């Protein structure tokens, strides 16, 4: 059994994701309103697994999700207050959001196929479904497909690592010719590997028009178009950064992670749906001990299962609520910036710091930047074969003064280093320091 | 957008799950070590999605899960330190734990079937799988089956609402005759509806011996035997309450929710596995930006997906660690009690309070108790038809002084009220108060 000194040892040895020299993965958030919110939430310790279990929990979440959608400039069809079937719900992670979307699209498609072919065995129908994503999408998309037992195709991207309409159109035609039923396309805004952006307008239009073809001779709707903006989504708070989300009004669902870049502590992925009933449906199972006289109310989940339509624990909304209220009070996001309370700095400052790093790297002719720098990630490498960059990575890991990770384009096999501005404490001097460490390592290798 | 006064309104209107007159569902926990742990965890705000992302996170969780298993007296094969393939992992809820088990058993079975029948299409093989549970199991088990797309049969229980070996044996024989492949049996210790206990020894023995029959002519192992002890599991801290878990050494996996009855704030379900690799397998997808030179280390999840083998966020282990250390320091669980720090009371006191309530209810000849009182739940009703108890429930809900919910046995259709000792603040006087409110309502109805 652990003595107290082990806890201290833990605190000393835990990886410091908030150090200004931490440039790996993507940022994760923390802020004092989030900590206060968690304290409140822990003290209340109330479980909102259905509306009746604590009506105020569900209602706070619906209000807050609408508020968040408005702050990001998302289309009205994602709002509860639009009066349609739309609305948002908090999931743990983007992977969980993807899984929900897969399960929703799967069950929706099977229900419609069964209506058209009442003799069809569910597993036979399942075998015909197919979903699409980009070859550069996060591995969690492929994993969600595997968990949902739905076939997925990773489609080729263009030279900017963006999935385009033509690739989707061609894949749909090929699969229809094989008798398969395309049900879902997951587009990514800001891939994990290189922060590439799929063309949501082109993909959304194809998803929308697909069923003018009237495949199956039924009134089935088009493909479900999901947009995963786990990292990049927070940037939509800044109107001047919204270009990358062109066509978002065509999306049937959208998710992003406030825990990445929006001051909310892990875990919090916001999932918005055009038709929430498609997710609610997959969890229908209403035992009597959870029935109540207000069953018309929006139940986030009518059971202690995590997977109704998903909310972990509504009082945790307090955390998000407090953080959002705080950001709003500052008014900074109205000026196109999302503020970091700890440092008084802003998210869009991360973008400027990334551009600063890019300029420093490009000043040395040995290096190249392999993806357009849109937000806080710079993908760079030593020109030439992968081996040189691999050696540079090993040297930097041994050096240990800065922390970053490597990646590789699926399409070209080009290996590169990912430099992410992560910490809210990160300053221009830290960028210059990281650059000097990289140059030192490159010079050492050159000898 | 919400003004600050709305937050205050929320605090005033949120359902108080910790009020001594709250007797609905099952308890949910809160404690000052849990709050301190969350503060620490929020301040560190480090993501442990793989060993390399923060080695100390993963290592704390492995140490803590072993410690927890030992405190509960679980079999050695669930320990990392046993040197086998076993180990524990934190999930959000019991529903999530069930889903993991379904996915693990499904993929394991399909891999083995494919080895025996290389021509088999995955969806055709999937169509042949079948899992079993009790008709009194929580709806989340059925839902997990639905999400995993695996057929499930809810088997009849005996007169004590306990699933017995004979029922499982018969179901397996019936299904094998139909060409189906039984893969999993989920037993419940402490059902949500009435806190009934399945016979784990009988079920475990059948799961274990099933493949002496050598179905499929391969070396496939037996059925996976999972034990869901979401509520009751915490009681295993008290050696004198362990009788209900007889046969637990036959289980291939086990989960319980420390957030229910063990001072840890929501959400925390501890899942232990005899062979963790079967869960790790279902999430295999290792992109390069997550590869590292220490890939032999136990990765709780090698991706930002929630669903690797599942941990939400390793620093949250601090919460559990602090609570557990605190409980240990008190030494109370060694005396057969698990302490509640807020009140100085103990979990086993909840059991005595439930017995006190049972005695009070039974003192009035109009009432009957419909399930043996083992832990903190008393299932009672007015003798006769369901209508009388339904009317009593409506009266109590209108009265609003105490809060409890109703349920119904799946087998007999008998409707009853669930009285749970939930709050750590609950005293004998609160039990007598609740009893007096119920008597008042019954007398009012009798007029």
Automatic annotation (TrEMBL), chains A, B:
Its EC number is 4.1.1.28. Its cofactor is pyridoxal 5'-phosphate. GO terms for biological process: amino acid metabolic process; carboxylic acid metabolic process; catecholamine biosynthetic process; serotonin biosynthetic process. The keyword Lyase applies. The modification N6-(pyridoxal phosphate)lysine is found at residue 260. SUPFAM superfamilies: PLP-dependent transferases (SSF53383). PROSITE patterns: DDC_GAD_HDC_YDC. GO terms for molecular function: aromatic-L-amino-acid decarboxylase activity; pyridoxal phosphate binding. Residues 328-349 are annotated as: Disordered. One of its GO terms (cellular component) is cytoplasm. Keywords: Catecholamine biosynthesis, Decarboxylase, Lyase, Pyridoxal phosphate. The keyword Chloroplast does not apply. InterPro entries: Aromatic_deC, PyrdxlP-dep_de-COase, PyrdxlP-dep_Trfase, PyrdxlP-dep_Trfase_major, PyrdxlP-dep_Trfase_small, Pyridoxal-P_BS. Homodimer. Belongs to the group II decarboxylase family. This is Aromatic-L-amino-acid decarboxylase.
């Amino acid at each position: 059994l652990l003595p107290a000194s082990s806890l201290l040892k833990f605190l000393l040895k835990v990886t410091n994701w908030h150090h200004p020299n931490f440039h790996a993965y993507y940022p994760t958030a923390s802020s004092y309103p989030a900590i206060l919110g968690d304290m409140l939430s822990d003290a209340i310790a109330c479980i909102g697994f259905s509306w009746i279990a604590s009506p105020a929990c569900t209602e706070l979440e619906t209000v807050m999700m609408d508020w968040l959608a408005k702050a990001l400039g998302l289309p009205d069809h994602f709002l509860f207050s639009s009066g349609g079937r739309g609305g948002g719900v908090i999931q743990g992670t983007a992977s969980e959001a993807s899984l929900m979307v897969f399960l929703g699209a799967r069950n929706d498609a099977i229900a419609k196929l069964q209506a058209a072919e009442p003799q069809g065995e569910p597993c036979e129908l399942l075998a015909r479904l197919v979903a699409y994503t980009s070859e550069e999408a996060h591995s969690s998309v492929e994993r969600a497909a595997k968990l949902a037992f739905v076939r997925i195709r990773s489609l080729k991207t263009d030279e900017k690592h963006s999935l385009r309409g033509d690739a989707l159109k061609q894949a749909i035609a090929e699969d229809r010719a094989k008798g398969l039923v395309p049900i879902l396309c997951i587009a990514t805004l800001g891939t994990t590997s290189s922060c590439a952006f799929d063309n949501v307008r082109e993909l959304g239009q194809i998803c929308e028009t697909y069923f003018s073809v009237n495949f199956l001779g039924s009134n089935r709707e088009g493909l479900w178009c999901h947009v995963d903006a786990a990292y990049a989504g927070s940037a939509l708070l800044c109107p001047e950064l919204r270009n990358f989300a062109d066509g978002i009004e065509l999306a049937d669902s959208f998710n992003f992670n406030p825990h990445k870049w929006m001051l909310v502590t892990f875990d919090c992925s916001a999932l918005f749906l055009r038709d929430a009933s498609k997710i609610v449906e997959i969890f229908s199972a209403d035992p009597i001990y959870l029935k109540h006289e207000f069953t018309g109310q929006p139940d986030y989940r009518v059971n202690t299962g995590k997977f109704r339509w998903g909310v972990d624990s509504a009082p945790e909304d307090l955390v998000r609520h407090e953080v959002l209220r705080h950001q709003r009070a500052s008014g900074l996001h109205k000026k196109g910036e999302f503020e970091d309370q700890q440092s008084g700095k802003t998210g869009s400052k991360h973008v400027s710091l990334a551009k600063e790093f890019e300029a420093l790297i490009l000043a040395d002719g040995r290096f190249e930047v392999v993806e357009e720098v849109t937000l806080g990630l710079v993908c760079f490498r030593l020109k030439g074969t992968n081996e040189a960059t691999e050696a540079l990575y090993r040297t930097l890991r041994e050096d240990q003064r800065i922390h970053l990770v490597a990646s590789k384009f699926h399409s070209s096999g080009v290996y590169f280093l990912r430099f992410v501005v992560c910490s809210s404490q990160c300053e221009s001097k830290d960028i210059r320091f990281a650059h000097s460490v990289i140059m030192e390592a490159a010079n050492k290798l050159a000898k």
